[in-house]
Design goal:
With 348 residues, this protein is of the alpha/beta class. It folds into 3 domains: 6-49, 434 Repressor (Amino-terminal Domain) (Orthogonal Bundle); 62-166 and 303-328, 3-Layer(aba) Sandwich (Rossmann fold), CATH 3.40.50; 169-300, Response regulator (Rossmann fold), CATH 3.40.50. The chain contains 13 helices and 13 strands. Strands 6, 7, 8, 9, 10, 11 and 13 form a 7-stranded mixed beta sheet that branches. β9 (250-255), α11 (260-269) and β10 (276-280) form a beta-alpha-beta unit. The longest helix is centred in the N-terminal third of the chain and has 16 residues, at 74-89. 44% of the residues are buried. The model is unreliable at 343-348 (pLDDT under 50).
Length: 348
């Protein structure tokens, strides 16, 4: 059945198209009785406004800002590349997307970047969340100025942000824990978690989920205290190298965050049996390590899909439409099911 148009509304209300359009867009200059007839016709016909078409007709641009962590971090590099590609693709929809980089895991720098924003310059802001009072204060300022905020990858300040786009990190951690149990098959062992920092919710939640499964009664596995490496390969390489040298009984490594080039370099150097290694995000380095058999599994959160969903949510928010949280379902990659190069968000 064909959806009613504004011409249908005008005809039903007995007014001109321009009068119906003025009522719909709240521009005034219409007699009260005519306005009431138009509103009645809209309700009776079930007319739904095509906001996208209306914005195009008014030549409106959507203005979105993404604040993404900088640095030579495999996942965030892929995330930035995905945003750059999507920015070009969405130009046809009159989306003007600005990408700015901030230091990773630096809540003060992220808050300063938010404080530097003029609320009238953008329609919505997206950022990778952190748990920080100073960041919450900066977000609250934007919200009071009616500039909505969307969190991406890692959530924060649920009472302030409008939408969260990303995976369920507790479930991702439980998935990693289950992979560890499957690979050990009830053989006793020790699992060493590695994370960037406990200051970001996604890392804490992944650790929580993994611990729930690994430490469950009957698993035969022990989860060791996590080491924090700020997602820096050189820190990971040094700290994990010392730990493995001091405890040859470690049978599994769960890398929750980034810096995995250091992990892969360390595993490449090992002779004899190596620990089972599960990590996050399909990057050029993790792909090559899977293919060489140096690591065992990668849990990937599909950064290109997260970027696309975030932009969709930001556009809905700008149009005063609902934008609920959007959970991306991650993919488990093994050496046998790797996608073709450039087939998954531009990864190689």
């Amino acid at each position: 059945m064909k959806s009613p148009t504004l011409h249908d509304v005008a005809r039903s209300a007995g007014v001109s198209y321009s009068t119906a359009d003025r009522v719909l867009n709240g521009r005034g200059g219409v007699a009260e009785k005519s306005a009431q007839r138009v509103q009645r016709a809209i309700e009776e016909l079930g007319y739904r406004r095509d906001i996208h078409a209306a914005n195009l007709s008014r030549r409106r641009n959507y203005r979105f800002l993404f604040l993404l962590p900088r640095g030579d971090h495999g996942f965030f590099t892929v995330l930035r590349e995905a945003l750059a590609a999507e920015t070009v693709r969405r130009m046809v929809d009159r989306l003007v997307i600005t990408q700015r980089e901030v230091p990773a895991f630096d809540a003060e720098a992220l808050a300063a970047a938010l404080d530097a924003i003029a609320p009238d310059d953008f329609d919505c802001v997206a950022l990778v969340g952190m748990d920080s009072a100073i960041l919450d204060t900066a977000m609250a300022r934007l919200v009071r100025a009616r500039l909505p905020v969307v969190t991406l990858v890692s959530d924060s300040a649920a009472e302030l942000r409008r939408s969260y786009i990303g995976i369920d990190n507790v479930i991702a951690g439980r998935t990693a824990g289950r992979l560890m149990r499957l690979t050990h098959r009830n053989i006793p062992g020790k699992i060493q978690p590695i994370l960037g920092t406990m200051g970001v919710r996604d890392h804490r939640e992944r650790l929580q989920g993994a611990a729930e499964v690994i430490a469950a009664v009957g698993s035969g596995l022990q989860i060791l205290p996590p080491i924090e490496v700020q997602d820096r390969p050189e820190i990971l390489l040094g700290r994990l190298g010392d730990i493995l040298q001091g405890d040859p009984g470690i049978t599994g490594i769960y890398s929750i965050g980034g810096g995995n080039r250091g992990l892969i370099e360390l595993l490449d150097r090992m002779s004899g049996p190596r620990p089972v290694a599960v990590l996050h995000e399909l990057t050029p380095f993790s792909r090559a390590a899977l293919q060489r058999g140096v690591i065992d599994a990668v849990i990937d959160q599909k950064p290109a899909e997260e970027i696309s969903r975030a932009i969709d949510a930001m556009r809905a928010i700008a149009d005063d439409l609902p934008a609920p949280d959007s959970r991306v379902v991650p993919t488990i990659y093994l050496a046998d099911n790797l996608p073709e190069p450039n087939a998954n968000g531009g990864r190689t």
